[in-house]
Amino acid sequence: MNPPLARALRGAGIDTIDVAARLGVDPKTVQRWMAGRMPYPRHRDALARLTGWSPHDLWPALPRPVEPATQRDEVMIVYPHRSAVPPDSWSRLFGQAQQEIDILAYSALFLAEDIEISSLLRSKAEAGVRVRIALGEPAGKHIADRGGEEHIGDGMSARIRTALIGLRPVVAAGAELRLHDTVLYNSIYRADDELLVNTQVHGHPASHAPVLHLRRRSAEGMATTYLDSFERVWATGRESKA
């Protein structure tokens, strides 16, 4: 029995004989539909028109059509961990920036120690691209907590201090630097409308956590949510000259 179809026909004041006559089928065929057999697509469409119900309301198990890629699709690729991101992806990301580069992390040491990346960030700042870098406050409570979670003690603070030294030329070229003491759920690396978002997993270093490569498609999407998160942390940070 197909209760949705039965309710829809009753609501429209139509019985099986009426349906058979209007669709040009045998009444037994309609009875089989009522018993649960799926009609052919043309008959499903006709029944939807007769009852005013949508096909998916009449047959809840009907497969949903696969929607083609649209402007709302934002996830370009998912990497199982940060070390799976091809090394040149970072330089491609920042190299394409024309307006903004944002970095939110605790240390981002892997970038600060990369001569190519630090030189690229410096040249972008010199060219007028707004470069904002938000790193963890070395003496912050949440940085100490993170070090404890990863069983590295003061190692997290040491990484941040090392990264700050490596980023001095970038800041000297015009990049803005702030230090924050927040619970960091994701590290965010943004170049205009593209982002690499390194998720955080309790007890594991960021390099072992998945990375999402996103492209902002709208003001309501996933990428915008992460960008809003960056702005919130940025607003709470204190300015620093590295």
From TrEMBL:
User: Domain of life here?
Assistant: Bacteria
The record's listing under InterPro entries reads: Lambda_DNA-bd_dom_sf
**Lineage of source species:** Bacteria, Bacillati, Actinomycetota, Actinomycetes, Micromonosporales
* Protein name from the UniProt record: XRE family transcriptional regulator
